[in-house]
Amino acid sequence: MKNFSNESLNTRFGINNNNFPVNIILMQPTTSHETFLDGSDYVDFESSSRSRNWPISVGEKTFFVDPIIFSRNSDYFRILMENKSFLEGAIGLLTIHDESPEDIYTLITAISPNCLGLYPDSINERNVCTVLRLCDKYLMPNLKRNCIDYLIEYHPVSQAVSEVFFLFYQLCFSLNSEYDHDVVLADVAVDTMFVCLVELCSPTNITEFTRLLFDLQKKGGSAKDIKNVKRVADAVFHGGALFRHRISFNEEVQGLGCHQCSMLPPIRQSRSKNRKPFVLSLCKSCNREVCVHCRRKLCQRLFEEWINELRS
């Protein structure tokens, strides 16, 4: 059988590895299509490449992006980049004055191929609030939907305490203006904050959370940040007292099931008078009927009231 070299195969099938991010023959990523940080698999967005040739100037930084990717994902960028009637389109340069280089870089890496020049950065606790805010500002509905889906599916049990606290803190203070005009995002954010608080209040995480607070105190910060961290920390340490269901034990009800955990009464197997009834207690704050196991859990209505006071 005749042997073909990679070069001859590439030529024969019209594939040029210099213009394609993956070596089709070896099924391995190539590096010639992008400029990477030294010793890294991540793209150097401060250097241009063949496809990333549109500069975005932010402060003292200049990032190079692919205008096709940005135009397809944002009407804002599409109008500025494709319309020569605007100054940005005429000179081929977009200057952003009211954002930090760090936040714009976060947006760029969330929408542009970064790792190996193939994959954008995934949405996580550290970038979701920044990306959500900029999606609203720069009209990126698809990326915003991805962020909302991330919050809906978020499971803090499998995450580090530091990451859960970071997300909880950012959701409390970073998106207030977005909550005002987007009811869906506001509801999703409250639900995510609630599950984060439940996890942070867990007795198994208090020691690690305390250690995290000591580290934050050593780093310092502005007076406003220190005050906000203290308010959030108080909610975590005193969550049981602040947000626990307000139960009136004189108002027990015989309901069909717990409204919080969906626990149903056991199947009746006998007519014994000694059988313990399935008793639910009524929470005076949220008007939910909760079972014995959920009496000591956190009440979402009380938490929502705390959030509203926090943002006011």
What does this structure look like?
By secondary structure, the protein is mainly alpha-helical. It folds into 4 domains: 1-28, no CATH class; 34-141, Potassium Channel Kv1.1, Chain A; 154-242, no CATH class; 243-265 and 278-311. The protein is built from 14 helices and 8 strands. It has helices spanning 6-12, 67-73, 75-82, 87-91, 101-111, 128-138, 141-152, 161-173, 176-181, 183-200, 206-219, 223-237, 239-243, 300-311, and strands spanning 22-23, 28-29, 54-58, 61-65, 94-96, 247-253, 280-283, 289-290. A 3-stranded mixed beta sheet has the order 4-3-5. Strand 7 and strand 8 (289-290) form a beta hairpin. The termini are far apart. Residues 4-17 have low confidence and may be disordered.
> Per DSSP, what share of the residues sits in E-state strands of 2 or more residues?
5-15%
What top-tier CATH class of the largest domain fits best?
Alpha Beta
- Rg computed from alpha carbons, rounded to a whole number of angstroms: 27 Å
Average predicted local confidence, pLDDT: 83
Helix amount, in percent? 40-55%
> Which stretches are low in confidence, meaning pLDDT under 50 for 5 or more residues running?
4-17
Order of SSEs = HEEEEHHHEHHHHHHHHHEEEH
> How many domains make up the 3D coordinates?
4
Total number of helices: 14
Largest sheet: 3 strands, mixed
Shape: elongated
What is the architecture of the largest domain at the second tier of CATH? Answer: 2-Layer Sandwich
Q: Tell me the CATH topology of the largest domain.
A: Potassium Channel Kv1.1, Chain A
CATH homologous superfamily of the largest domain, by name?
Potassium Channel Kv1.1, Chain A
Structural class: mainly alpha
Number of strands: 8
Organism: Caenorhabditis japonica
InterPro entries: BTB/POZ_dom, SKP1/BTB/POZ_sf
Pfam families: BTB (PF00651)
Protein name: BTB domain-containing protein
